[in-house]
Amino acid sequence: MTRTERDSMGEMSLPDDVYYGIQTVRAIDNFKISGLKPLPTFVDACLLIKKATALVNAELGCIPVGMGMAIAAAADEILDGALRDQFVVDVYQAGAGTSHHMNINEVLANRALEILGDVKGNYQNVNPNDHVNYGQSTNDVIPTAIRIGALLALHHVLFPALANLNEQLRIKAIAFAGIVKSGRTHLQDAVPVRLGDEFQAYAQIISDHVRRIHQAASDLKTLGLGGSASGTGLNTHPQYCDRVAEKLSEITGFELTSASNLMAAMQSMAPFVNVSGAIRNLAQDTCKIANDLRLMDSGPKTGLREIMLPPVQPGSSIMPGKYNPVIAEMTNMVCYQVIGYDTAIAFAAQAGQLELNVMMPLIAYDLIHSIEILGQAIDTLATKCIRGITAVEDRCLAYAEGSLSLVTALNTHIGYLNAADVAKESLATGKSLRQVVLDKGLMTEEKLAEVLNLEQMSRPNG
């Protein structure tokens, strides 16, 4: 069974069982690029916008009430999981996202027709352009969808993951509070620290990133929806902008407002660059933490082996008994991808001309995907790695006691140059720092024991 649809370029037959229409079919044919389809979260954002606009336009008398309710009901069905396979346009597509936008409009129109007891394709009764898209344009819908999609991804994926990571790090900070280990700077011995304090520092770093991301995300709550084609609001009801922002707030739970300058909100990709930069910043520190974990677990015989990451799968196809830090390695890879996405977003954001940025489909995919994959990676890191970390206490203590940097504590007692000579002699002869100091008669045994107290030296601010 087929049906015939017509657009401004002519007629085309398409299978009657599909809910998308002629413009989507043209896009499928034109953009056989990556096989990547729109992210579910981005589809959700578009559906939420279409639901809100349909209800507001019906309330304002711009479309019939029954039609508006049917479009909103169709959006709800899809948000609940129906027809998800109908959103088929490649990520790399028509500039600004017109192809994806029409895919959304067509699916909603055809499902609304069915809800009203009509047949798919009978667009004189529910039209993708004239009704589902009333008072809207790709140019204001897509940047709004990026905002809503990013907010959804942050609140449903990334923020819960960061809360989990922070909790697991703080649990380890308490568990490891009394374990003294060698500090390291430049990958060389440094004064002793406590393993628990290292994990407490990681937790603070993550907390700081949560604050920064929340701050960056606040700009996403100002919408250009209602600017229609070029920011002038052509073909919209005078009350539409504020009413649709209120309706979207009600539907999403986010405190959304209409921008004071719709043209600016549509043109500038700055809010997305700002959020992407905050996500990249988080990725960089997350990558550093993952690297630290891998380094502290290196070995088991020929590395540091101060901690043990939980083994989750065999590590080699040829070396029996080998386990690798695979969760931390995966985290590194995701972080690198996020950093790459941020670069792409920055280039795309500056590529707008006059009233429109045509690179929005790339920004939409890369920003939302960054948030979601980093959130999923962080949650996995917290749950499958950090939660199960154990400390190798005797190895930590041995490194701390054997570190030449303990000599730093002698500076205020014997002077920097004398302390340097002690370190050099200890390294050359194999004698302990204590023995060299006593042999040189630089300090009494009692005073030396007091100064080289590892517990005291590794205590923060003490």
Structural features, described:
With 462 residues, the protein is mostly helical. It has 18 helices and eight strands. It has helices spanning 22-30, 40-59, 65-79, 98-115, 128-132, 138-175, 195-217, 240-252, 262-267, 270-296, 326-349, 360-384, 393-402, 411-414, 416-429, 433-440, 445-451, 454-457; strands at residues 2-7, 10-15, 180-185, 188-194, 222-223, 257-258, 307-308, 390-391. Strands 1-2 form a two-stranded antiparallel ribbon. A two-stranded antiparallel sheet has the order 3-4. Strands 5-6 form a two-stranded parallel sheet. Helix 8 (240-252) links the parallel strand 5 and strand 6. The termini are far apart. The mean pLDDT is 96.
Helix-strand blueprint:
Layout: E1 2-7, E2 10-15, H1 22-30, H2 40-59, H3 65-79, H4 98-115, H5 128-132, H6 138-175, E3 180-185, E4 188-194, H7 195-217, E5 222-223, H8 240-252, E6 257-258, H9 262-267, H10 270-296, E7 307-308, H11 326-349, H12 360-384, E8 390-391, H13 393-402, H14 411-414, H15 416-429, H16 433-440, H17 445-451, H18 454-457
Domain Fumarase C C-terminal: 406-457
Protein name: Aspartate ammonia-lyase
Keywords: Lyase
In short:
This protein is mainly α and 462 residues long.
Q: What would the principal axes of the Cα set say about the shape?
A: elongated
Q: Give the DSSP E fraction (strand runs of 2 or more residues).
A: 5-15%
Radius of gyration: 30 Å
Please give the largest β-sheet. 2 strands, antiparallel
Question: How far apart lie the N and C ends?
Answer: 80 Å
SSE ordering: EEHHHHHHEEHEHEHHEHHEHHHHHH
Organism: Pseudanabaena yagii GIHE-NHR1
Pfam families: FumaraseC_C, Lyase_1
InterPro entries: Aspartate_Ammonia-Lyase (IPR051546), Fumarase/histidase_N (IPR024083), Fumarase_C_C (IPR018951), Fumarate_lyase_CS (IPR020557), Fumarate_lyase_fam (IPR000362), Fumarate_lyase_N (IPR022761), L-Aspartase-like (IPR008948)
Protein name: Aspartate ammonia-lyase
